[in-house]
Amino acid sequence: MSLEDAVARIAELVALVTALEEQNRELRKALAASVAENGELRAKLEELLELLGQDSRNSHKPPSSDGPGAAARKGKQTKLTKPKSGRKRGGQKGHRGAKRQMFEAGDVDNVVDLFPPKCSGCGDDLPKTHDPDPRRHQMVDIGDKGRVVTEWRRHQVRCPRCGAHTRADYDPTVIPASPFGSRLCAVVVMLIGGYHLSRRQTSRLLRELFGVFVSVGSVSNIEARATSALEPAVEEAARQVDDAPVKHADGTTWLLAGMTKVLWTVASAGATVFRILDDGTQRTIERLFGKRTGILVSDRASVFGFWAMARRQVCWAHLLRKFVAFSQRAGPAGRIGRELVDYAVLMFQYWHDFKAGRLTRDELSSWMRPVQQHMEALLERGKNAEIRRLSGSCEDILAHREALWTFVTQEGVEPTNNHAEQQLRRFVIWRKCCYGCQSERGLRFAERVMTVVYTCRKQGLNVLDFLVRTLRAHRQGTAPPSLFAGAGASA
Predict the structure, then answer these.
(1) Tens digits of per-residue pLDDT, 151-160?
(2) What is the DSSP code string of 43-70?
(3) Which of 9, 253, 361, 419 is deepest in the core (most CB within 10 A)?
(4) Separation CA 314–CA 77 (nearest Å)
(5) Where are the domains of the chain?
């Protein structure tokens, strides 16, 4: 190699080294930026994890923000976590009980004096002599003007012939077994089941508003009696829904002492029935339906597979939300999703025009036909596109093809399941306040009282009056009132 070639080769190597050094400096800068960015991301992650781990024990958040099962999700006990005692719920052995105090004589509105008719000694007729210290039995109720106290007094009379003392017998047909009247009990049931106050809030409200003391335990006892009294009305509502030509079904979660249950509703235009079941399997849900007649409006949940597809209507509100999710993606999935949204919006526009009287049923069917064709063609295109998280959904929607357009031709059928979702809404709000029930009896009370409240309102019945008549009939052993026989006599 000549000297000139060697010099040229050295120059090339020097230039290469210079370029590599420059590249190395750029890489170092990029690495430093990545390290800094990584540090920022780690700090942000730590901040988010700290926020995620906050609850009422380690932040300013109130206990109500923890949600059900919060303690169980935390895993190990902390110093601030109170360990479980292993004892049963409620008052413990040896604790000082609370006793309901009787009203003073001046607060009693009605007095019923009971005298023994015959002497227990000689059998002679006894005079109706008032006893200065009779056995008193009181019942408090709520009337049109507030609290009403009725007192039964069992007098003890001394026989003028033999001197024996005889007290009037306790007659359960005359003296009520419960110290609370039917209207007061109905108010308790409505405050808890209709307006979702807690037992303690209900007790406080009755004391402050009416001057009536009803302990938390007595409130629970009233619930128990109401649970039994409401059973015939719930069965009547279930038969009404079963016979309805159109019914809506939906479900959500409910809790039993921290364990997850499933709350279902089946609702028609005239009645609503709630049931709290162990799970959401098809075998369990089938028990909600008797004849399985009429058209069922629901979502696409596989648990409704027992219902004939041709007699179903799939909720288009759920489908529209699915299409919107598709439309927010990039690429072919987004394009298909946006077209599906456009046709779904057009479909709802035609439906609203029909509901407003601007289209006849025949015009609705005619205008919907091209929408249906284009929509199903789009779904077929999405199904065949083999796009992750889109093609499978399109295939499942097409599997419900027969249930997509029932509302177009069948009278009384809506394209959405909003009716069932609206029926569940108050139950969901109640769940947020009370975190479910603590006993099986509590489950039955919740589902029965809500069934009666919602069905009464659909029938135009006064809820309180119906509850009064139902509880009164249960107490007297007479036939219960009907939910579907008109408002009836006011209580």
Answers:
(1) 999 999 999 9
(2) HHHHHHHHHHT--TTTSS--GGGS-TTH
(3) 419
(4) 46
(5) 104-177, 181-276+438-491, 316-409
